[in-house]
Design brief:
The complex is a heterodimer of chains A (215) and B (201). With 215 residues, chain A is an alpha+beta fold. In chain A, 15% of the residues lie in helices and 30% in strands. Chain A has helices spanning 174-185, 191-210, and strands at 3-11, 13-15, 20-22, 28-30, 39-40, 47-49, 54-55, 60-69, 76-81, 84-85, 98-99, 131-133, 138-144, 163-172. In chain A, strands 5, 7, 9, 10, 11 and 13 form a six-stranded antiparallel beta sheet that branches. Chain A has a four-stranded antiparallel beta sheet with strand order 1-14-8-12. Chain A is elongated. With 201 residues, chain B is α+β, with helices and mostly antiparallel strands. Chain B has helices at 166-177, 183-200; strands at residues 3-11, 34-35, 49-50, 55-64, 68-69, 79-80, 84-90, 93-94, 107-108, 130-132, 137-144, 155-164. In chain B, helix 1 (166-177) crosses helix 2 (183-200). The chains are: A alpha+beta (215), B alpha+beta (201). The interface between A and B is large, with 61 and 51 residues.
Chain lengths: 215, 201
């Protein structure tokens, strides 16, 4: 399993009285989020988190293929590699990233997040070319919203659930080496091209044998 | 029928061999994975899913009941659905990992909904496919974090292709060659064998 399709889902859900939980837990409630602030979906301290930042080892290569977020509350998601934000404004200033209205999660959610709404949002965005995380790099996905997300302890009458989704492919071991090689060659890193490179290696190795050793 | 498109649908409220009796109040504990094949709840089969020495399975799609998150108008109506996830396990290895390399619950029903509706469309495509090699045992594990066991609220779906006999051998050969195992490539390999044989004659 040297190439694996992987997913990560984050939601602003935590056990009652806490801002975050490691992995997931039952009987959770939404936690409040402040507008204009970035929340790391892996280690941000809000919602479901993991134990350490997402990073690739020397023998791993990650290709991020899709990101999305809830369409409500002006949600957006940004990808950060080491300290560099992937999405930026045309004047090279900072921006929030892909709006949830452009890349909704789930696809078909109501644009205002209404339980009875019928304004189904479809994707306007496809993350192509993909985002590469090279061996040894740290990466993160940052959620932000333009209006406050009310949590269960907020003074308001309602609570709001929001979520993010990341789809990526993890190349490990020999396949990570091939991914690096493809990158050097300027070839897109995807499972098909990794398989293609393997086939060319096999053909080259078997060619002397089929020639009977004749140069 | 050496290549066969196969599906398996699981429903927590349905009865089946080794599963629950009809209407027996199928209780699913939260935060606990249940095998959709032999988990003892819902419709089950007689033994774990496994491939023989002459079989090769390619899992092409999985899905489970979706969950929606809302802008709620009270403290309780911020979601609908079971917050369900489905994980693929090959022998003892979980397929989906968190970025810290620890196994997670798998793909969420929100990203891979079953059934698909206008308001719940897939965000996820299982690519590359998951291969179950000859002699391996495989499973799909359903975990949920909210909700009851009302009919239709806990469902899972697996789509896979079963390669048997000579086609399983070809599937293994394609795997060695670094070629994706799918019906088109298996047919292509057969054609090259046939054209190679007829050229010799």
């Amino acid at each position: 399993m040297a190439m694996r399709s992987q997913v990560y889902e984050w939601a602003n859900l935590a056990t009652v009285g806490n801002n975050s939980t490691i992995r997931r837990a039952a009987n959770c409630a939404p936690v409040g989020l402040t507008s204009g602030r970035e929340y790391d979906i892996f280690i941000g301290g809000f919602g479901n988190n993991i134990t350490k930042p997402a990073e690739t080892t020397a023998t791993q290569f990650v290709v991020i293929e899709d990101i999305s977020s809830s369409p409500q509350n002006g949600s957006a998601v940004q990808v950060r590699i080491n300290t560099t934000d992937y999405f930026q404004n045309p004047d090279v200033t900072k921006q929030d990233g892909i709006p949830g209205l452009a890349s909704p999660y789930p696809v078909g959610a109501d644009s205002a997040g209404s339980p009875t709404g019928t304004n189904y949002v479809l994707s306007s965005f496809n993350l192509y070319p993909d985002v590469y995380v090279l061996p040894g790099q740290t990466w993160g996905v940052l959620y932000s919203c333009q209006t406050d997300v009310e949590g269960s302890s907020s003074s308001g009458g309602g609570t709001t659930g929001v979520a993010c989704f990341v789809k990526y492919t993890l190349y490990d071991g020999p396949d990570a080496l091939i991914a690096n090689k493809l990158l050097e060659l300027g070839v897109t890193v995807n499972p098909n091209n990794v398989d293609w490179y393997k086939r060319t290696l096999i053909e080259q190795a078997s060619a002397p044998a089929t020639n009977g050793g004749v140069a | 029928m050496a290549m066969r498109s196969q599906v398996y649908e699981w429903d927590a409220t349905r009865s089946g061999f080794g599963g629950s009796a009809v209407g027996a109040g199928n209780t699913l504990a939260t935060a606990r994975p249940y095998s959709i094949f032999i988990g003892g709840v819902g419709n089950n089969i007689t033994k774990p899913a496994e491939t023989t020495a002459t079989q090769f399975v390619v899992i092409e799609d999985i899905g489970c009941t979706a969950t929606d998150l809302f802008v709620g108008t009270s403290v309780t109506n911020w979601f609908s659905g079971p917050r369900a996830y489905i994980q693929v396990r090959i022998n003892t290895t979980d397929y989906f990992l968190d970025p810290d390399n620890i196994g997670n619950d798998g793909i969420s029903g929100t990203a891979a909904p079953y059934p698909r509706t206008i308001s719940n469309q897939p965000s996820f495509n299982l690519y590359p496919d998951v291969y179950v090699l000859p002699g391996q045992t495989w499973d799909a594990l359903y975990t949920h974090y909210e909700g009851s066991t009302t009919a239709g609220t806990h469902q899972a779906f697996v789509k896979y292709t079963l390669y048997d006999g000579p086609d399983a051998l070809i599937a293994n050969k394609l795997l060695e060659m670094g070629i994706s195992v799918n019906p088109g490539n298996v047919d292509w390999y057969k054609r090259t064998l046939i054209s190679g044989a007829s050229a010799t004659v």
